[in-house]
Amino acid sequence: MAKQAASRRRKPVEDMSGTGRPADLGVLQALVTETLLALGENPGRNGLLKTPERVAKALAFMTQGYHRDIDQLLNGALFPIEYDEMVIVKDIDFYSMCEHHLLPFYGKVHVGYLPNKKVVGLSKIPRIVDTFARRLQVQERLTVQIAETLKTKLNAHGVGVVVEARHLCMMMRGVEKQNTVAVSSSMLGAFRTQQQTRLEFLKLIRRSGVGTSD
Ligand SMILES: Nc1nc2c(ncn2[C@@H]2O[C@H](COP(=O)(O)OP(=O)(O)OP(=O)(O)O)[C@@H](O)[C@H]2O)c(=O)[nH]1
Ligand SMILES: [Zn+2]
């Protein structure tokens, strides 16, 4: 069991850095025009005239995470502090796109970590989430990338990430299940080795808090 856990820990996350090139809006526009034609539409009709341009911009926006640099994003917002209790930032909204169907999946991310002599500026956690969400993704990889980035950048004693999401590829096509939620988690360091830490995290992210209605 312990051996299994160790080998799971060592497994590297698939590289998802893209080509490094910015989205090519011109090529995207031309392809959207082709797509409209292939769908039997008329790209020349009034309502569709600006559609290729709009779609190209929207796709570039939704995949901008390929071009975000985590160190730049953190902007030095790592603060030395003697605080060794768990920090949780939960209910972080995100939108991503599944790499299989190029359809959105969206939901909430809950993040917890055990600091090791430093904490990170709170807003930087949603920024890290968006950096990895705004790419073509699968939910599990998104989950692991957020967790591993935080663990490395904070040198934290432990990190826990839970992602709850609805996938439009399971809703508006395919199995057409409207109420299905996929839950994935990544537990690193103390969150993996200490059941008590993990349970505390899971309990705290379930609790309703300031400004929540449930
Ligand atoms: N594990 C995982 N699967 C995903 C994610 N997003 C989409 N999928 C699944 O990817 C799979 C792709 O399966 P395929 O059989 O190749 O594609 P498909 O014929 O369109 O599959 P159906 O959706 O079942 O119609 C489907 O089961 C999707 O539900 C994700 O984030 N994580
Ligand atoms: Zn999909």
From TrEMBL:
Region span, Disordered: 1-21
Keyword flag Hydrolase: yes
Keywords: GTP-binding, Hydrolase, Metal-binding, Nucleotide-binding, One-carbon metabolism, Zinc
Domain GTP cyclohydrolase I stretches: 30-206
Residues the record lists as binding Zn(2+): 98, 101, 169
Gene Ontology MF: a single term: GTP binding
A single cellular component GO annotation: cytoplasm
Organism domain of life: Bacteria
Pathway participation: Cofactor biosynthesis; 7,8-dihydroneopterin triphosphate biosynthesis; 7,8-dihydroneopterin triphosphate from GTP: step 1/1
Biased composition (Basic residues): 1-11
GO terms (BP aspect): one-carbon metabolic process; tetrahydrobiopterin biosynthetic process; tetrahydrofolate biosynthetic process
Catalytic reaction list: GTP + H2O = 7,8-dihydroneopterin 3'-triphosphate + formate + H(+)
Subunit-level organization: Homopolymer.
Name recorded for this polypeptide: GTP cyclohydrolase 1
Species annotation: Nitrospira lenta
